[in-house]
Write a structure and sequence with these properties.
The chain has about 80 residues and is mainly beta. It is built from 1 helix and 5 strands; from the N terminus they run ββββαβ.
């Protein structure tokens, strides 16, 4: 799964590979700001406290059978 963090000012941090090494790629409004080797380097460009991790939930398969409705046999 891809890891991604976003901030309120249009920044996005994603894992990337540069010259065979993993980096934290910082983008702002889609434009490359920096490829950072550490979180400390990322902190020079963005406020880490404002970042939120984006988590992609797996999609559920479509239901193959219609849902069954339970009915009560007791009438009041």
């Amino acid at each position: 799964m891809d890891r991604r963090w976003v901030g309120s000012d249009g920044c996005e941090i994603v894992l990337a590979t540069r010259a065979g090494r993993q980096v934290l790629r910082v983008r702002r409004h889609g434009r490359l700001v920096a490829d950072c080797a550490s979180v400390e380097e990322v902190a020079r460009h963005v406020d880490l406290a404002e970042l939120c991790e984006v988590i992609a939930f797996p999609s559920r398969p479509a239901a193959t059978e219609p849902a069954r409705v339970r009915t009560s046999s007791h009438h009041r």
